[in-house]
Design goal:
Elements: H1 7-26, H2 36-57, H3 62-87, H4 96-103, H5 105-108, H6 113-126, H7 158-167, H8 169-183, H9 197-221, H10 226-249, H11 269-276, E1 279-280, H12 285-290, H13 297-302, H14 311-325, E2 332-333, H15 336-351
Parallel strand pairs: 1-2
Length: 355
């Protein structure tokens, strides 16, 4: 990766990159927002969420309740990755009202869209892989992602327990992390930030709504045993959390990526993106339909307000060839499992005393 480059070469690379992205849309009169595939995902998400919740509420046996409950919580994983992420980057529709409704899809799944935008859009997108600034690196000391983070004795085993930690991802967000981010911020960029009372009240109201339809109604209205409902909630949330955290983390915390001391390590932000991000599963239709574009992450960080269903063509026609032309290292892995392997090895390496 070019840490230091002449302004001329920087300008040429950056100019060509963004010109070709613009030409991709303007040359064929395409919209940067939702296309047919994205509208299909929106319909799938709505039918899946509503239909599975109706099945939960009409369950007549313990087995059917557990299975339908799981089906419903898996819809949350689909919505979080494929709908909520794009919606909170303003990358689905132009209509302000519909766009605002879609942004609340995060809240519908128990996670505050407001807090997400602070942690993800602001902190993560401006500080990828920078310690104490990137939310993706904030683990309360449980995991060590960067050489700049303090190494604890427990980290020697982090490659063994990492996916167990990821399983707690959604439960942590729903019950703790949103409030922790508001009142006890762990990132330097959020410390001292003020939040309006209306914002806090909305977050609390959505949390109550989420707990009500996932736990209170099944127990007190539908009459299912509290133990059954709580165990179903915890077990399925562990699966949702593991899926979500793994898909999110492997794009940045990889053995092949760089971990800068600050955002000033690179002459231009475009180099920061290429240095700290790895793509994977380019030829996978499953990834296209399930990962919300997070597997083609370089493009997302360069132009986050483009709907993810355009990423595959743009990566093939712009990112890869332009990077190659200008001798910029474009990191990519063939499969999701290869990306997971590199993620695992990165954690193992950072857990060693010598790392």
């Amino acid at each position: 990766m070019k840490r230091v480059a002449s302004s001329t070469s920087t300008d040429k690379f950056k100019k060509e990159l963004y010109e070709k992205v613009r030409d991709y849309f303007e040359g064929s009169n395409r919209s940067k927002l939702a296309n047919g595939q994205m509208w299909a995902k929106l319909i799938i998400a709505a039918v899946w969420w509503l239909g599975s919740l109706a099945l939960v509420y009409t369950s007549t046996s313990t087995l059917s309740f557990v299975l339908f409950y799981g089906l419903h919580l898996l819809s949350h994983a689909f919505i979080l990755l494929n709908i909520a992420h794009d919606a909170n980057h303003f990358a689905i529709v132009e209509n302000k009202f519909f766009g605002r409704v879609l942004r609340y899809s995060f809240d519908l799944c128990g996670i505050s869209s407001y807090v997400w935008r602070q942690l993800h859009n602001v902190q993560h997108h401006n500080n990828m892989n920078v310690n104490k600034e990137d939310d993706g690196l904030a683990t309360r000391g449980i995991l060590r992602y960067t050489p700049f983070a303090k190494r604890l004795k427990i980290h020697r085993f982090q490659h063994l327990y990492v996916f167990l930690a990821y399983a707690l991802f959604s439960i942590d967000y729903i019950l703790f992390k949103d409030f922790e981010s508001l009142f006890f911020p762990f990132l330097d960029g959020l410390k001292g930030k003020k939040h309006s009372k209306i914002t806090i009240l909305k977050i609390v109201a959505f949390k109550i709504f989420y707990i009500s339809y996932t736990l209170i109604i099944p127990i007190f209205v539908l009459g299912f045993a509290p133990t059954l409902v709580l165990l179903s909630f915890v077990c399925w949330q562990l699966i949702v959390g593991m899926i979500g955290a793994t898909v999110i983390q492997v794009s940045h915390q990889s053995r092949s990526n760089e971990y800068p001391a600050s955002t000033h390590d690179y002459e231009d932000f475009v180099y920061h993106v290429f240095a700290t991000t790895v793509d994977h599963s380019y030829n996978s239709s499953i990834a296209d339909w399930c990962f919300g574009g997070l597997h083609l992450h370089v493009l997302h960080h360069l132009v986050p307000r483009i709907c993810h269903t355009h990423y595959r063509e743009l990566t093939a026609n712009v990112i890869e060839p332009v990077a190659k032309k200008h001798n910029i290292s474009y990191r990519t892995k063939k499969t999701f499992f290869e990306a997971i392997r590199e993620h695992y090895l990165h954690l193992r390496n950072l857990g060693l005393k010598t790392a």
